[in-house]
Design brief:
Layout: H1 2-22, H2 34-44, H3 49-53, H4 57-86, H5 96-125, H6 138-161, H7 169-198, E1 200-201, E2 206-207, H8 213-224, H9 233-264
Antiparallel strand pairs: 1-2
Helix pairs in contact: 1-4, 4-5, 5-6, 6-7, 7-9
Length: about 270
C-alpha cells in the first residue's frame, strides 16, 4: 500500500497532463504536446505551482487505495468461490479460466464501487481550480454531483415517465431517498474515520486524533477489512434518509408555491401524495 501511495503521488502530474491531452479536441495535436500542457499548467493555474500539479490528488489516492484494496479482497474471495463451486481440493491448481473468472469479478466489483471517486478525480484534474464552477475539493465534488446530478436526474426521469407532468410529493420523496442512499453509501467511510478521530481511546489513553487520519484508516483496513468502513451504515441511512425526504419535500413545495403566491396568483394545486 505504501508503494502504491508513493507511486500515485509521484506520477500524479503526468495524470493531469494525460487527462488534459485526452480531452483536447483541437485539430493540431502538436499545439497541446506534453511540454506545452505542462508549461500552461505552471503558468496559468494555481494558487501555487505545486497545488496546480497536484490538483485532484485526494480522489486519486483514495481511488487507488480503495480500488486495489477491494480488488485483492474480492480476488481472494473469488478464488474461494470458484474452488467451492468446482469442488477443488486445497492442493488442486486453478486453470487460467479460473484465475480470469476470479480476477474479472473482483475487478468489476471494485470498479463499480470506486467509480464515483474516479468521476470526481477526472473532473478535478481536467479543469483549473481558477475556473468558475470547478470543484475546489473532493468532498465538494461529491456533494455537487449528488445535489445537481443524482437527485436532479432522477427527477428528470420521473418527469419523463409521467409525460412531463408536475412531480407528486411521492415522486419527490423517492428521488430524495434514492439520491441520499447513493451519496450516503459513497461517503460513509469518511464518517467512520471522522468518528474515530473525534473519540478518546481508553486502552491507549490518548485521543485518537493524535494517531492521525492515515493511521486510523490503515488500522481499520487491517483489522476489520472493507466492511469496517461501513459499520453503522444501516442506522445511519435509517436516520438521514427520512430527514432528507422531508427537507426536499419542503424545498420543492416551497419552490413551487412561492412564484404562484407572489407572481402568478394561480390556483393550480400540486399533486398530493
Amino acid at each position: 500500500m505504501t508503494a502504491g501511495l508513493a507511486s500515485t503521488i509521484t506520477v500524479h502530474p503526468l495524470d493531469i497532463i494525460k487527462a488534459r491531452m485526452q480531452l483536447d479536441t483541437s485539430p493540431n495535436p502538436l499545439l497541446n504536446s506534453t511540454r506545452s500542457v505542462f508549461a500552461d499548467i505552471l503558468r496559468n493555474e494555481g494558487p501555487t505551482r505545486i497545488r496546480a500539479l497536484y490538483r485532484g490528488l485526494s480522489p486519486n489516492l483514495l481511488g487507488n487505495t480503495a480500488g486495489w484494496g477491494l480488488y485483492f479482497l474480492w480476488y481472494k474471495q473469488g478464488q474461494d468461490l470458484v474452488r467451492n463451486l468446482k469442488g477443488y481440493s486445497k492442493d488442486q491448481k486453478f486453470t487460467n479460466v479460473d484465475y480470469l473468472t476470479a480476477s474479472s469479478g473482483a475487478g468489476a466489483l471494485s470498479a463499480i464501487l470506486t467509480n464515483p471517486i474516479w468521476v470526481v478525480k477526472t473532473r478535478m484534474i481536467s479543469t483549473s481550480s481558477a475556473i468558475q464552477g470547478a470543484y475546489p475539493s473532493m468532498v465538494y465534488g461529491f456533494k455537487s454531483i449528488w445535489q445537481t446530478e443524482v437527485y436532479e436526474n432522477i427527477k428528470i426521469r420521473q418527469r419523463e415517465r409521467k409525460g412531463n407532468q408536475e412531480l407528486s410529493n411521492t415522486d419527490t420523496s423517492i428521488a430524495a431517498a434514492v439520491s441520499k442512499v447513493f451519496a450516503g453509501t459513497v461517503t460513509y467511510p469518511s464518517q467512520v474515520v471522522r468518528s474515530r478521530l473525534q473519540t478518546y481511546d481508553p486502552a491507549l489513553k490518548v485521543q485518537r486524533k493524535s494517531l492521525g487520519l492515515v493511521r486510523i484508516a490503515l488500522d481499520c483496513w487491517r483489522n476489520e477489512g472493507a466492511l469496517g468502513f461501513y459499520k453503522g451504515i444501516i442506522p445511519n441511512l435509517a436516520r438521514v434518509v427520512p430527514s432528507t425526504c422531508v427537507t426536499f419535500l419542503v424545498y420543492e413545495n416551497t419552490r413551487w408555491a412561492l412564484p404562484r403566491i407572489f407572481n402568478e396568483g394561480t390556483s393550480e394545486s400540486k399533486t398530493a401524495i
